[in-house]
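**User:** My hope is that you can spare some time for a protein that puzzles me. I have put the entry right below:
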Amino acid sequence: MTRKQARMRRRRIRIAGFCLAGCILILGIVCGAFHHYVSQFPEDKIAENIYVGTVDLSGLSKKEALEKLAGQKKADQKQTVSLTVEDQKAEATLEECGFDYADVKANVKAAMDYGKSGGLFGRYKSLRKLSKEKVVLSPEYTLDQKATENILEERAVPFAKHAQNATITKSGSGLQINKEEIGETVDKSGTIKAIKKHLNDSWDHGSFAMEAKVKEEQPSVTEADLSTIQDELGSFSTDAGGGERWKNLKNGVEKLNGTVVMPGEQISVHDVTAPYDEEHGYVQAGSYENGQVVDTYGGGICQVSTTLYNAVLFSELKVVKRYPHSMLVSYVPPSRDAAIAGDTKDFVFENNYDTPIYIFGEIDDDNQLCFAIYGKETRDKTRKIEFESEEVSTEEPGVKYKADAELALGEMEVTGSAHTGKEVKLWKIVYENGKQVSKDVINESTYSKADKTISVGIKTKNSSAAAVVKEAVSTQDKAKIQAAISEASSMESSSEQ
């Protein structure tokens, strides 16, 4: 290397050093400026111009941001969604549908962390961007699947043009089948997905309307299913009587008449005939309650279930639930009754045949409450069934006296009828070709006794006379009560003189 070349090299090194020093100086100045800009944004506050959805979280702490979003959620929950089904409107608030912000804590964290992580230049660039445009973090809006399904089932599904099952009716000319029709129902899952999509894609946080999603609905009972119903499997009838009770019998029978029960399906008489109130066609009539006959809406419905129970027995359908009355009834032998009592007693049976059955019920021209069950007969033609009630034990009723302050002193009035208590077994006896092939106990029933109740009057202005009779009534001794009445009458007469 020549001297000249060496000098040139040393010169280039000096220039490079100056340039590097300059660059370092400039970089230091720039970094200082970046750091100064970034340091203006507090670590515990969200930067300006950051939104979650439509909610501005600028300058808020984490707690303040969560509170503000909670307030927005409350406002959102008050909005309604209106669904159209067959030109009908079904409405619900978003709150009823379980509307919520799925990731609100994550959104607030992302808002709080914006521009506060990564390299200095990246943070500066992100924060600088906020001065020109807002950053919007998108929340995920959700619905409670079960709550929304329940709303749709209750308010939207009834408006759909549902499939019509094939039906069967009995008339003088026999059994006629009416063909089924394909229909539509609300697609609950599809509708919920559509609502969620609207909420998360284009919702303006106001109430909104949309078409409910529908899908084809096939009938569950077809003409082909019912074509096997040709034979009477069993029937039974009881006298329908009269008065207000008769109206309840007719109403209950009409609710059960025409019922088709598919193979393996169970029927609850309570569920088909209830609720027992005026709105659903029932009147007040006598029924058992706490060992006495009292008037209640639907009084007499137990005779409907009892008559059907006997038709079920002769049809040899499977009895799932059956309860006796608290006391004996007069219209069937003991242990052949089936009581209905609110949620505690029900008659439930199952179609254990391989083909559908049809329940026909009526009160005929002879005032007989009748049930007949039709299906496809598969039993031996020589098979005959009998039912026999066996009394295991009997408890005779007594007499119970009760003081009555509304009845004149000394008057006696029967206010509760007597009923014999019994324990009974019901035997099912089967014959084939004229010979007995089986005899089995199919139920056991206990009926409580009810004492004859006699009210004894203690109504008088003479409190001492009333006390004498009341004391005698507490002994439940007829002779003492009669003696006390005589004594009290004398006391009352003396006080009047």
About this structure: Confidence is low (pLDDT under 50) at residues 21-39. The two ends are 161 Å apart (CA to CA). Residues 1-40 form one domain. The first strand starts at residue 50 and ends at 52.
